[in-house]
Amino acid sequence: MELVYFDWLDYLVFGTMLLLSALIGVYFAFFASKKQNTTSEYLMGGKTMGMLPISMSLIAST
Fold first, then answer.
1. 10, 17 in Cβ contact below 8 A?
2. Cα–Cα distance between 21 and 48 in angstroms, integer?
3. What is the pLDDT of residues 1-51, one digit of tens each?
4. Rounded Cα distance, 26 and 4, in Å
5. Full-prediction pTM beyond 0.70?
6. What are the residue boundaries of the structural domains of the chain, listed by start?
């Protein structure tokens, strides 16, 4: 059985995705114009999502 390890390109893609995710989180935490101040707004998404994103989320999670 051959062991397979990450190559430098795999580490580069993984690190880039991790950095991009962190930058998006920092942006929405500190610089977003509309904040979610309560847990209800956070958990319910501010009740501003349309039917298509909610449907796609439900389909993907089942």
1. no
2. 23
3. 888 899 999 999 999 999 999 999 888 888 877 766 777 776 666 677 788
4. 34
5. no
6. 8-61
